[in-house]
Amino acid sequence: MKKRSEKKLGRKNVDNLAFDEFLGYNNQRVGLINENLASKAFIWWFVVSCYFPIITACMGPMANTISIACLVEKWRYYGTNHDHNDFGPPAILVVNILSLAIGFASNCVLVLHFVNRLSYKKSQTINIFGWTVAATMLTVDVCVFAARDTGNDRHKTIGFWYAVVAGVLYYGCTFTLLIHFIGFYLGKYPPRFNLMKNERTLMLFTLFFAVLLIWGGGMFSRILDVTFGVALYFSTVSILTVGLGDITPNDVATKILIMVFSFLGVITLGLILAMTRSIIQESAGSTFFVHWVEVSRLTALDNIRKHNTELTRREAYDVMMNIRKRAKRRQMFLSITVTLLIYVTFWNLGALAFKFAENWSYFNALYFCFLCLITIGYGDFVPKTGAGRAFFVCWSLAAVPLMSAILSTVGDSLFDLAKSADLTISRTFHLREVKSFIPGENRALNAIFTTSNVFRNNAEDNEYYNEAYDNDDDCEDNDDSQDDDDYDDSDVFDTGTLMSNLEDLTDYSAWKKFYVSEWLTPHSAYSFHSRLEKLPMLTQAIRKFRTISREKKNYNLSYRQWNKLLELYASPENVKRVANPRFWLSDESPLRFPLSEPDFAVAKIFAKMESFLEELHETSLESHPNYRKPSRPDISSIPRDSRGRHSRRRASSI
């Protein structure tokens, strides 16, 4: 496999300037894809690596369930008497048994890989070969039976159509796994499914759901005196809460059993829906957002270099914020568009199938499918033929849960859009917003970098907040547009601060000179005593940012707050990158990623405090007369996580 470039994956940047736990997307997923983050191929292989295994995990157990129905159901009946039926030639039954056995074995192999009991290469080889053989056997079975053993007053039953559906599902499993294996063979990702550990349990839930359907089919076929295939259709209608009313329980015992069965089915289906929705939310939207930001950012940098444009730090920040706003709008537009496209596809596909299977008009078929998708069953139109009921089982199990998950995700996006519209209307008509628990938070944030009084009592806190509330009209708004009117460079690059000292340093020699003169000088701005004096300010900053994080989950730092945070966190190791005028558009910019900005600020300040406390610990030991400085081992080979745990242990021992 090709060696993955960390620069392409963006992992290096995230490790340096953002902590994974505060990112709005899962960097581990992105890090597996061996494609440039800004390329179109990245999106395709990300979808293949993440979603194709989920699709297979849902189709495999359902294919086995329907394959059981096509095995136990008789395939043809004679004349108009449905009671006069048979399985067809014995060879048909033998092939069905072999197909079910191979398909079931392939599904077991997939489960073993999902729980990390079997390697990727072995499981993929067995699965692709097994499901291809099972699907081909059913296809041959169906084609031969339809050509030789039907006609002349011999008709196909629901068992035949279940065989058609099972064959299609087996081929679907083969297709998704084959595409995934091709991606691995081309070196696009390592030999594994791009799923987190908790997401791999989705396969177990789909297996339990399949067992539940098989149990319902067997139980209700005896109680309601119907065939297994019809009972499977009844079980599907009950679990999906459609309630068509064409088959109903007729005694107390059956009603009790249907209540228990429906309850278990709805709970299991709800868990599958919740996990599917979680995977969609945590991966799709945020990953596409990062991709679009990266594409626009690189395009902007190319235009800047092409036209030799000089940007100030504020101009670079404004360009990056505009890129993020466009990416968010595009993300919302894509979410709504894809949802509508999938909805219309399932709606029309179902209507087309029911039109021919049930001999309905196309409008009535559309009407029936629409009611099923929103789980309303009036019962005026119900599938009665074997083809219609077999197709309904497959179509409804895919369409109804998927629509619920996607519509719920879109609902969240529309809710966020409505909140943004409310804020826009408030600003347009100069409506006064309801104050938060801690008003004037922006003034408080500006003050945290100049105050050193950390240990306020409650009375002082109340007085401070009340004063901030009284002067809230003078505070800058969180909206970045408010900064344009009263922005002053001196507010960020004050005389004597780190950023002002580095403003004119553009080459490596000047930076190295600064490093030697400032870092190694005992009484410089980087000296131990200077750092110790900053501890109260850091503590105060943590208090304020944590308060904002609790009160405003989607709070965005302003330009001034970002610069003050970078000024506070700057060090000789990163000051050259931070002082770059194009920093906000560079590979080091934290604005490339969706993240919780207040939590990010707290994490960076905690890291700064950790380094201060480590120095305090070492200095206190060095001042001891019997202190002997231990030899430091080479930690370059120690994993990053281990070094972090070691540092935390040292800090906690103070």
Would you kindly provide a written description of the structure presented here, covering whatever features stand out?
The protein is an all-alpha fold. It has 3 domains: 32-195, Butyryl-CoA Dehydrogenase, subunit A, domain 3; 197-431, Helix Hairpins (Orthogonal Bundle), CATH 1.10.287.70; 441-630, no CATH class. The chain has 24 helices and 3 strands. It has helices at 6-9, 11-17, 27-31, 40-72, 90-114, 120-148, 158-185, 202-223, 228-239, 252-306, 313-358, 362-373, 386-428, 441-447, 458-470, 483-486, 489-492, 498-501, 508-519, 528-551, 559-569, 575-578, 597-622, 640-652; strands spanning 76-78, 81-86, 154-156. It has a 3-stranded antiparallel beta sheet with strand order 2-1-3. Helix 4 (40-72) packs across helix 5 (90-114). It is elongated, with a radius of gyration of 32 Å. 34% of the residues are buried. The model is unreliable at 1-19, 433-512 and 632-654 (pLDDT under 50).
Number of helices: 24
- Mean of residue pLDDT values: 75
Strand ordering within the main sheet: 2-1-3
Percent helix, as a range, is 55-70%
Total number of strands: 3
Secondary-structure-based class equals mainly alpha
Name of the CATH architecture of the largest domain: Orthogonal Bundle
Work out the oligomeric state of the chains in this entry: single chain
State the name of the first-level CATH class of the largest domain. Answer: Mainly Alpha
Strand-residue proportion: under 5%
Quick one: biggest sheet? 3 strands, antiparallel
- In total, how many domains does the architecture comprise? 3
- Using the coordinates shown, work out and report the CATH topology of the largest domain: Helix Hairpins
Anisotropy-based shape: elongated
The rounded distance between the terminal residues' Cα atoms is 46 Å
Low-confidence parts: 1-19, 433-512, 632-654
Write down the Rg: 32 Å
* Secondary-structure element string: HHHHEEHHEHHHHHHHHHHHHHHHHHH
